[in-house]
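Appendix B, example 12.
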Amino acid sequence: MTSYTSDKQLTIEGFETPFYNNLLPTNRWVKLSQIVPWDKFASVYLSVMKIDKGRPSISPRIVLGALIIKHMENLDDRGVIAAIQENIYMQYFVGLSGFTTDPVFAPSLFVEIRKRIGNKEFDLLNVELIKSLSQQKDERHNKKNKKEDGEEPKNKGKMQADATVADQYITYPTDSGTLNECRKHLEKIIDRLYDLDGKQGVKPRTYRRNMNRAYLSYSKKRNKSKLIHRKMNRKLLECVKRNLKHIDNYLDQFELKNESFVLTRKEQHMMFVIREVYNQQKVMYDNNTHSHAHRIVNIYQPHVRVIPRGKAKAKTEFGSKLGVSLDAGFARIDTFSWDAYHEGKDLEKQVESYKKLHGHYPELVQVDKIYATRGNRKWLKKRGIRITAKAVGRPRKDLINQSNYHKRKLKKEATERNHIEGKFGQGKNGYNLNKIRAKLRETSESWVACIFFVMNLINYQKKSAAFSFLSQIGILIKNIVDVVCENLIGEQCRDTQPAIYLNYASTS
């Protein structure tokens, strides 16, 4: 049996809406709105704004809510505004007092928002989440971190550390492809300068048709020898050099006419980048090498560098390198670098950040072999911190004859390091951490930091629900024990017998 309603019988005026009902308190956006540190973000966001200048700013709650919705739903900037405009629960989440069909702000404003809020601002929100959860844990277990005599607290807890790359969403860079993009962009500038000069004289020769055919024939070849690559790079270098010379001649002519500012700010920046790309590629061509310090791989994002990784999927990645530490499931970006570096140098800073947050050092640091340098081992040993790495030198006799329990414990601690690998997988598979679509350096950093904050927010929501459930179980067991003591044994039971529910609460 089927039912069908014709589009002629269904009108928008007759469509029934549930707006006369209250919002469901079990909705995911309603629950999430109760744990986001709105006040902390508002103080951070307003601190970077000018109070006495400009038009009134958008509410910080709307700003943060829109960013959270964007990365949780994997939407583009326009899609976020449209989703909020259509969803009443999202409008409640961003702090609107009632349903409205108007957009909360223009989608283009996302760029300015990302310029204001970077990794430091989102790290403050991550610290707020970790502190809030630590307070819940301390209240539940009723433990103190410091001793009564004022001595340094004992090391406690575990911290994982590792590095990853947040790949920029760019085409795979090659020397010929980068030079060809430079050639095309210079041709556009020449065309504009020729039109601006009133199309006087003969237009400079760029041989663009011949180069387009040559590059198309080159790109279609599956197997390219080194000679073919080198021949194509030579032609492209000659074209880029010729086009730069034509533009310089035009600029000299305009300067004689007292018209110095003929290029826009964007074109001036692009000219600087293209000249640097030409110099780098010329040096590599002359020396017959394929590497250069601070090599530019994309003229539209010149801050992106080659990050050697040695992974099975790709030996090199192109994006920002992140030094990340994981604390009870919460990830913090300790190092945000656009250049390749040795991640083992991050360990001291990450451990000190852990102490600054918790008031004590971690008892165990779970890292891979690249962090287990002699300097790091000495620094950790001085502070009584263990590391999941084999000791240097010959195995000691006491380690060879250790018990099976100790062996299983060491193996479990070593495998727990995979938690941070799972966090990277969550970011790349669930939140497109490997497809950063922002173009500017600061907007890309904000994009990546917001993804980590959203993942921490989801983790906080899960842990808060678990703590609430265990607290209810503890209260239920306490009530049951009280009833049993009063009915079967008497009032004296509670004074002489141990509190079962307290033992359960401490072990759970």
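The radius of gyration is 31 Å. The chain has a mean pLDDT of 86.
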